[in-house]
């Protein structure tokens, strides 16, 4: 099927007024097909219509789905996030003129499918996810994850920190996800970052949480986070502002050591991303999301995720489209991406 779209009909490129885009026949890298030559809805539904392979071997970066949502506290449905993000990603093209990034000129990227999870057993799912990511990072491949609820970041960071040591974290979210337990359980989507702290997976002086907001059960809900050394940037401190200055400070805070980006789509305002399980009003804008991700360029990013897209609450598909674009922006921010 790759051959089908990389070899346009004889003469098809000559009728175009535009220069032919690179394609996998002439590039040593995987290159998504252009809609100038391959109709947008054509092809197997992979992320960015990249080739699908089952192994991370030989890849610099890979998109991987984790369709788990049984750690969700409110509306379920994020198990369908990866499929819908892939479907909407057919609108995303291969260059980023805003930043100059040409990721498919210097990185070998593919979609490596989904981690199998046990929807009836969260602990078992965490083990499956950890083991899958141990293989991905061992291959020298940077994972770009399509979630799934936020529970998945805990086993992902277990694997990432095993390879890189404690990592810095750029965490965009409405919630800090540092709860201790709920209904007596320590593993669900409200606790991943407390579990990570307890296991020493985070370099706590290099953790920033952006977009935090909402009602709480106490009047000082961020004490735990500050006590760990996290920087907590409330949504109200972002309202009606450019986040470019903030990201300058974040780059200083992160330095040259490894960092991980965890982006919960509910960090955005539900006007822009209603398809999610635990929405909170008055969130970040899409432009601020771009400022945050583009502001991570130059950092030593060793992994990224985009979680909590629950497509059923957004019949327009816009939440999944947002997720697809933000994952593309993360790819464009990775170390080693060529700037043209
Ligand atoms: Mn979250």
TrEMBL record:
Binds 2 manganese ions per subunit. Mn(2+) binds at residues 150, 173, 175, 177, 264, 266. One of its GO terms (biological process) is putrescine biosynthetic process from arginine, via agmatine. Keywords: Hydrolase, Manganese, Metal-binding. One of its GO terms (molecular function) is agmatinase activity. SUPFAM superfamilies: Arginase/deacetylase. Its cofactor is Mn(2+). It comes from the Eukaryota. The keyword Metal-binding applies. The keyword Magnesium does not apply. Belongs to the arginase family. Agmatinase subfamily. This is Agmatinase (putative). It comes from Pelodiscus sinensis (Chinese softshell turtle).
């Amino acid at each position: 099927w790759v051959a089908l779209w990389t070899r346009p009909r004889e003469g098809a490129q000559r009728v175009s007024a535009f220069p032919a885009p690179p394609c996998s026949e002439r590039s040593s890298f995987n290159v998504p097909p252009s809609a100038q030559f391959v109709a947008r809805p054509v092809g197997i539904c992979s992320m960015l219509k990249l080739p699908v392979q089952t192994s991370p071997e030989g890849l610099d970066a890979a998109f991987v789905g984790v369709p788990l949502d049984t750690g969700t506290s409110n509306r379920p449905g994020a198990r369908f996030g990866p499929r819908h993000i892939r479907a909407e990603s057919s609108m995303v093209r291969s260059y980023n003129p805003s930043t100059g990034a040409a990721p498919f000129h210097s990185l070998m990227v593919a979609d490596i499918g989904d981690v199998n999870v046990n929807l009836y057993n969260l602990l078992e799912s965490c083990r499956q996810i950890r083991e899958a990511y141990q293989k991905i990072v061992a291959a020298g491949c940077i994972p770009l994850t399509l979630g799934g609820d936020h529970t998945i970041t805990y086993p992902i960071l277990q694997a990432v920190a095993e390879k890189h040591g404690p990592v810095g974290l750029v965490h965009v979210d409405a919630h800090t996800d540092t709860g201790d337990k709920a209904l007596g359980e320590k593993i669900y989507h409200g606790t991943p970052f407390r579990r990570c702290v307890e296991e020493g997976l985070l370099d706590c002086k290099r953790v920033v949480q952006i977009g935090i907001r909402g009602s709480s059960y106490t009047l000082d809900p961020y004490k735990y986070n500050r006590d760990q050394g996290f920087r907590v940037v409330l949504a109200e401190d972002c309202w009606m502002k450019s986040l470019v200055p903030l990201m300058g400070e974040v780059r200083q805070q992160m330095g040259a050591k490894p960092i991980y980006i965890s982006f919960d789509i509910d960090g955005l305002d539900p006007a822009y991303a209603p398809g999610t399980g635990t929405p909170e009003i008055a969130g970040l804008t899409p432009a601020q999301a771009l400022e945050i991700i583009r502001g991570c360029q130059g950092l030593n990013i060793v992994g990224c995720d985009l979680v909590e897209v629950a497509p059923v609450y957004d019949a327009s598909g816009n939440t999944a489209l947002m997720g697809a674009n933000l994952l593309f922006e993360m790819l464009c921010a990775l170390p080693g991406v060529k700037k043209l």
